[in-house]
Amino acid sequence: MKAIALIGLSGAGKSTVGPLLAQRLGMPHHDVDREIERREGRSITEIFETDGEPHFRTLERDLTIELLQEPGILSLGGGAPMTTAVAQALTGHPVIWLRVEPESAARRIGNDQGRPLLAGQDVVVRLRRMLADRSGTYGALASLAVDTDASGVDSVVDAVAAHAHGFEPGVFMGEVIPVSTGKPYEVRVGWGVSRELAQTLEGRHKIAIIHPQSQREAATHIAATLTSDKTLIEIPEGEAAKTVRVLESVWGELAAHGFTRDDAIVGLGGSAVMEVAGFVAATWMRGIDQVSVPTTLQAMVDTAIGGKTGINISEGSNLVGTFWQPSAVLCDMDYLTHTPPDLLRSGLAEMVKHGFVADARTLQLFEVHTDAMLDPGSPELVEGIARSIRIKASVVSADPLEETSEGNRVGRERLNYGHTLGHAIERHSHYEWSHGDAIAVGMLFAASLSHRLGRAPRALVERHRTLLARLGFPLTYAPDAWPELRRFMGHDKKSRSGALRFVILDDVARAGIVVAPSEELLQSAYDDVSRTFR
C-alpha cells in the first residue's frame, strides 16, 4: 500500500486521525511537523523566528518527499500542499482532505501557541483566509474528503481505511458527510460510490431494490453486485408513485418474498422513489433498514437526506408521512453525467434555497460560476452539491424531527423556504410544473413577503430575481390562480391550528418564521410575482 497523506487546516484532526489510522492499517505514522522538530532539535516556532518561513518550507518539502517513498500515514501541516514540489509528490497517493469549518478548528486549537501562522491573530478570521486560499489546492489533490465537524474519530478512520483499500490513482473518490441524528449515518458523494452498496448491506439476507422504469437497467446492474437474495420492485415514475395504492403493491411484494426486519430496502431513483422507499422501510415490520441511492440532483441534495417521507392524497401532497432515517446515502455523480440542464434545475433550486437560508458561499458559486453550475461534470457543481448536502446534514442533525420554530429560532423548518407557495403551484399545475420551477417562484414570493413585512431589504429580493433568472427559472405565475393557490396553502403541513406559517429572511442565512400574515400582505406579495406573467 502506498503512503497515505492527510491534509487540511490546522485543527482538522490530522494528528488525531493519523495514529489511529496507522494502527488500523498496520503502518507507521509520521506527523511531519513533529518529525521536523525532532530532527532539528527545536520547535516550529523557533524555526520560523530564527530562519523564516521559506527555510521551514524547504525542510517540510524535503521530509515529505522522503517519507512518501515508503508505506505510512503522513499528517501534513496545513500549508504543505501549497508547495509545488509537495503537491507534485502527492500525485498517485491516497490524499485525504479532512474538512473542517474555521469555527470548529478554532475551538479545537484553543490557545495552542505552537502554530506560528496563527499566533497573535484572530484565529477564526485567519483560518477563514487560509481556507479560501487553500481549498482549491486541497480539492485538486484530494482523492477523498471527509467532513470532521460532526464526525466521530472512529467514523473518520473507518471512511479513510475503506478508501485506502479501494484507492484508484487519479480518481477523486468523493466525500463523506456525517448526519448525526438519533440513528447516525453517512452520506457519500463522488463518482462510482454506488459500488459501495454491497459493503454497506453486508450481512443482509434479502434486499429489495425499489426503482422506477427509467432506472430498470441501473437496478439490474446494482443487483448484480450484491450476493444477497434480490427482489426488484418497479414503481411508477414521479409523483404517480406516491400513492397508497403503490404502497400496497410494494408491501405485497415484500410479503410474497418473505421480508423480515433483518432484511433491507434500497431506494434507487429520484425524489419520489426516495420518499416511497423510506415510507415502505419505516412501515414494513414497524421498520427495517433502508439505503438511498439517489439518481437525480434534487434527490441527492434534498430528499435522500434527513429521513422525511411523504405520500400524496387527494387533499394535498406529502400530508401522510414519517420520519425514517436511512442507514446510508450513496450519491453517485455518475448518474448525473448526461443530465441536461433542464433536468438539473429541480436540484439547483434546492441548492439555491440552501444558499439563501444558510450559506453565502453557495450563492457565490451560482453567481460567479453560473455556467459551470449547469455542467454535471464541473468541479464547481460537485463542490456545490457537497456544500448543499453538508448544509442539510447540519440542519437535520440539529433538528431531526422538525420541531416547531418560533421567531428567529428556526430549525429544520428553514428548509421549507419557498415551499409553501411552491407546493401549491405544483398541485395547481397538476404537477406539469417541475419542482424546481415551482420552488423558484415560491422563493421569490417568500422574499417579497419578507420585504413587505419590513424584514428583508429590497436588494435581497432583487438578488433572488437576478440569480433565478440567470439559472433559467420562471419568475412569475398566473395572476388569476391566487384564490386556488391560497386554498391549497391552507392545507400546508407546516400550518398550526389553522394558521399559515412562512419561512422568511432578514438577510442571507438569517431565517425567521411569520405566523398568519394578513391576507392583504399575502395578496400583495403574490402580485409581485404575477404581474409580469406571460
What's the SSE blueprint?
Elements: E1 4-7, H1 14-25, E2 29-31, H2 32-40, H3 44-51, H4 53-67, E3 73-75, H5 84-90, E4 95-99, H6 102-109, H7 123-141, E5 144-147, H8 153-165, E6 175-179, E7 185-190, H9 197-200, E8 206-212, H10 216-224, E9 229-235, H11 244-256, E10 264-269, H12 271-283, E11 289-294, H13 297-303, E12 308-313, E13 316-323, E14 328-332, H14 341-358, H15 360-368, H16 379-398, H17 419-428, H18 435-452, H19 458-470, H20 482-489, E15 501-507, E16 510-515, H21 519-530
Parallel strand pairs: 1-3, 1-4, 2-3, 4-5, 5-6, 7-14, 8-9, 8-10, 10-11, 11-14
Antiparallel strand pairs: 6-7, 12-13, 15-16
Helix pairs in contact: 1-8, 2-4, 3-4, 4-5, 6-7, 12-13, 13-14, 13-16, 14-15, 14-16, 14-18, 17-18, 17-20, 18-19, 18-21
Molecular structure report:
The protein is of the alpha/beta class and 534 residues long. α2 packs across α4. It contains 21 helices and 16 strands. The strands form 3 sheets. It has a 12-stranded mixed sheet, with helices on both faces. Strands 12-13 form a two-stranded antiparallel ribbon. A two-stranded antiparallel ribbon has the order 15-16. The radius of gyration is 25 Å and the shape is globular. The model has no long low-confidence stretch (mean pLDDT 89). 49% of the residues are buried. A hairpin with a 2-residue loop joins β12 and β13. Helices cover 46% and strands 16% of the residues.
Global outline: globular
Q: In oligomeric terms, what are we looking at? A: single chain
Biggest sheet layout: 12 strands, mixed
Structural class of the helix and strand makeup?
Answer: alpha/beta
Low-pLDDT stretches: none
Residue fraction in strands: 15-25%
Tally of extended strands? Answer: 16
